[in-house]
Amino acid sequence: MSATRRQFLSAASALGAGIAFTGTLSEVFAGTAAAQSLGHTGYGPLVPDPNGLLDLPKGFRYTVLSREGDRLRSGEGPVPSHHDGMAAFAGRAGRTHLVRNHENGATARIPVPAVSGLTYDPAGKGGCTALTLDRHQRVLSERVAIAGTAVNCAGGPTPWGTWLTCEETEDRAGTNGYTKDHGFVFEVHPTDPHRTGAVPLTALGRFQHEAVAIDPRDGVLYETEDAFQKPFGLFYRFLPHRPLGGVGSLRAGGRLQAMRVPGVADLSAVRETGARFDGIEWVDVPDPLAAVTPTRFQDYGPGGITHAQKLEGCYWGGGGVYFVSSFARGADGSAADHYGQVWRYDPAHRRLTLAVVFGPDTDVRLPGESPDNICLAPGGGLMVCEDGNGAQHVFGLTRRGEVYALARGRQNIGTDQRPEWGEFAGVTFAPDGATMYVNCYTPGTTFAVTGPW
Fold first, then answer.
1. Does residue 45 have a cis peptide bond before it, meaning omega lies within 30 degrees of 0?
2. Which among 299, 296, 303 is positioned nearest to 281, based on CA atoms?
3. Of 81, 68, 69, 137, the residue nearest 107 (C-alpha)
4. Does the keyword Signal apply (predicted)?
């Protein structure tokens, strides 16, 4: 292992964000289109929204595309609860197609309506909805894309233009009234969901899935597992039998493996940004369907396997896959505390690097902790959805290490003393880069944000 350290870089004092980043940030952008730009240094202070929804910098504006409880334009029922992971796909005539997860468990207030041919388990309340927008961000259609799943958290787009939605649960048939096992990944077509139906991609494993990213060169899939308690989640790769085979090709199966970092049992123990590990190993998962034992509990032989608490966002860029550990707490059993990490795995060199560390080392209570969904901004830099305590933000991070707040959800405290807004999720950009889409988890709301990007 080699390690380097940079001075903390923070715009917290100027923005009141209470967030710091360390690390050689060029790791995050090397080889990507975003590397052509240093990214913006910020757009100025956030302006309070008179409508009490979303604070943005001057010159930016938002449109509410959809809110939970409204009627789906298809007439299939109300817009479901708990808006989470999301992706945008290019359509004809300047249209954009959004596919949006609904992280609904057994007690969700508004389930995804069951639709014939698109429902996996009639007792499941989760799933996805799909929106089609015109070039002016007007909603042309909104419909169910898959139903009968459970706790659809994040996922990832495929190179052939579909969405992989992930169930963050391991509930079996007979639990919470379910009639089928859960904990799978499903493929969702953004414009013709009946082409993909409601078929679990069982070879990708049954565990608490969070997100997926695909290497567009060879079709290898990378998967994160979001586990709160020990033993924590694993980072997986899937070697498909039909790599880059197009819609439905993942049903042909493949080989599921888990990452082993030699000498590192818990990624939270690594503290120095720039820390690098060569010779990463991949070990076959003994029982991907977890018929008896959850995959993270299984026996991986001498050397064990490498765990990490709260593995969340996952995306591909610049010849490597990036994945997020949202936080780690020693009190929960992690080897050390941290407030967010971004790791980069380089398949060509079998190398793992700690690229970014979030938050000051001394104060977990500050906002700016717990990165969740994350994406590359078209003009350079990262956009990060915060899932921590206090006010919730979408932060931008430039290649220079400068942090700025791009959006803040208004914390209107009701009579029950609970915030009205939940975390941000599903940040993504339109194919032309002119619009950022982002969800508020609760009450479920999808925004389109435009301005002087």
1. no
2. 303
3. 81
4. yes
The pairing of strands 393-397 and 382-386 is antiparallel
Residue 411 has pLDDT above 90, yes or no: no
The answer to whether 264 and 271 have CB atoms below 8 angstroms apart is no
* Of 157, 222, 152, 32, nearest in space to 428 by CA: 157
**CA–CA separation, 308 and 303 (whole Å):** 16
The model's pTM is: 0.90
Which residues in 193-233 belong to E strands, given as ranges? 209-214, 221-225
- Where do the structural domains in the chain lie, given as residue ranges? 1-67+359-453
Q: How crowded is the C-beta side of 421, counted as CA atoms within 13 Å? A: 25
Question: Is-contact 292 209, C-beta < 8 A?
Answer: no
DSSP codes, 320-345:
EEEEEE--B-GGGT-SS-BS-EEEEE
Tens of pLDDT, residue by residue over 160-204, are 999 999 999 999 999 999 999 999 999 999 999 999 999 999 999
Average of per-residue pLDDT values in the chain: 86
CA distance readout (Å), 412 to 17, 211, 219, 391, 443: 19, 30, 45, 10, 12
